[in-house]
Design a protein that fits this description.
197 residues, alpha/beta, four-stranded mixed beta sheet, 25% strand
Length: 197
């Protein structure tokens, strides 16, 4: 089984990269660690934590989302509801709430979910965001819980990956056929060399 180390990045979209930078870098304190771009396109990455980033594409004509409250049911094609960022503790939530409100952004009251305490807000693109602090002594990763009174058939099988659900790999890609194709590597590596100087 592959070993996951976090979310390398979530890729979002904006029509105003400067407003996005001011919010994510300057208000929330997430460093801008990579910026790529050319005519009509930008792709910027902000550091959330050691292994996690959030990235934004900027394309002409992108407009903010229609505001939709976190977790409110919808109908029709839909894939994304909100992002939750974990912080170290409850004091961080109060600090973020105060910063957001001082900057004129709406922020919810703190909500107790039993295993996390959370506040909710929206970024300048109307992306719904949550900030969550773990409740001391409650670790769902160590002791998974199914509180759904009528869980799905698959959920009833438990938290661990189930063997035999998918076909086994019979022909792994041979090393001599493993290729990595060019993306933005040259641009990024040249920028790093230039910076190191």
């Amino acid at each position: 089984m592959a070993k996951y180390t976090g979310i390398n990045h979530l890729a979002m979209a904006t029509g105003d990269m400067d407003a996005t930078i001011r919010f994510w870098r300057d208000l929330l304190g997430m460093r801008l660690v990579v910026g790529m771009g050319r005519q009509g396109y930008r792709h910027y990455f902000f550091e959330i934590a050691e292994h996690d980033m959030i990235a934004f594409f900027e394309w002409e004509g992108v407009e903010p989302l229609e505001e939709k409250d976190h977790g409110v049911p919808v109908k029709g094609p839909y894939a994304f509801d909100h992002i939750s960022f974990e912080v170290a503790g409850q004091e961080d939530l109060w600090e973020l709430k105060d910063k957001l409100e001082a900057a004129g952004f709406w922020c919810s009251e703190m909500v107790d979910h039993g295993f996390i305490h959370s506040i909710y807000a929206f970024d300048p693109n109307n992306i719904p965001i949550e900030f969550s602090a773990p409740v001391p002594g409650v670790d769902l990763r160590a002791t998974p819980v199914m509180a759904d009174k009528d869980p799905t058939d698959e959920a009833r099988k438990g938290p661990e990956p189930q063997p035999g659900v998918w076909p086994e790999v019979k022909h792994p890609t041979p090393e001599e056929e493993r290729a990595v194709y060019d993306g933005e590597a040259e641009t990024i590596l040249n920028a790093l060399k230039k910076r190191r100087g």
